[in-house]
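To close the section, here is one more complete example, presented without commentary so you can practise reading it yourself. The ligand is spermidine.
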Amino acid sequence: MTRSAAIARLLRQWQTGRMTRRELISRLTALGLSMSAITALLSACGGSSSSNQSNSASGTQSTEATAKPSPIARGIPDYVDKTKLAKELNFFNWSDYIEPGLLDEFERIFGVKVTQDTYDSNEDLLAKLQGGATGYDVIVPSDYTVSILIKLNMLEPLDYSVIKSISNIDPNNLKPYYDPENKYSVPYMWGTSGFGYNTEAIKQELSSWKDVFEPQPALQKKIVMLNDEREVIGAALMYLGYSINETSDEALAKAKSVLMQQKPAVLAYTSNNQTDLLVSGEALLSHLWTGNYIQAHNQKSTITYVIPKEGCTVWQDNLCVLKSAPHKYTAMVFIDFLNWPEVNGRNTNYIGYASPNKAAREQKLIDESMLNDPKVYPPQDVWQRLQWIKDIGEATQKFDRLWTEVKTA
Ligand code: SPD
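Output:
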């Protein structure tokens, strides 16, 4: 994420009531903005820089004036049949997982209004879909969840006469274990799930899950874990030397005891404000996805990211169309759009994850600093310690139970 994207993101958090004005000013200062620049920025957004005012999400103008990315300079491609386009599309996505201006760009180019709902875990997505949520067109499940949805017969085969931009995707990201012919899924973003910490507050170098699960006293109530059962139990399993997909009662009992012992040091289990907690200093260490690290590091350069020596998850999130989608053709067009190099470049620079879009990378549409960061694109020797989460079938119930026990203890 570029500095201007980080600024736009902070302003959006403030405008949507997720951050106080005081917090906003302190974050903008940490990004190196002078007080006069902050005053100008806030007045352009309809506010003043007085830090003791309460936050207001109303009466503000768009933040785009401050960090507006270039508009997408293309029209509707000739392979799209305009007569088949719906007026609207319903997108069910992870929170903070698209540069919001891109939804407006899609509407401007195709005349289709996209409504987005968000979730924070694959289990959340599955529960909502299996609980009867209807109306969604495009969803963004991770690897093992694509396997589950295929097994449940909930995905629509993709139409590659429309999703021509699949040719922009790196062959290394195609034909994944969970959908070997990409019949149902197109890679969206990928990354790892390690941990980040503030090197200003923690001077010694951390490199192991031991630092997370048997934390030093300074980390009491300063640790954040993802609110994600496969990630958290998986990390404990890896720490114990098991596979991330281990399901034996013995291993799970040991993982539970690791998590129970760690719990007093945990400030929160969350997958939607771990970056903010780390940047604000309320947390000093957090279980993170790569994009959280980029977002945090861009706001506070002393935050670093670790792929622990015992290993961690590697994952790939995907664009899929539901069998029950009311606007299937338009859903295919939306997936095609998201993989145009200039769209993916804008998106990647904003959300900060590793991009599978080779064309965007080769056309230098993605920030060099991110492309050259081995924490984002790990080198070959690190890959050896990364593991994919797999569908564990019935044993998922054991994970559900263990997770509930840990969270409610
Ligand atoms: N805020 C969006 C986060 C998306 C992360 N998806 C990764 C899932 C790995 N199990």
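Once you have examined the tokens, check your reading against these statements. The first helix runs from residue 3 to 15. The chain has 18 helices and ten strands.
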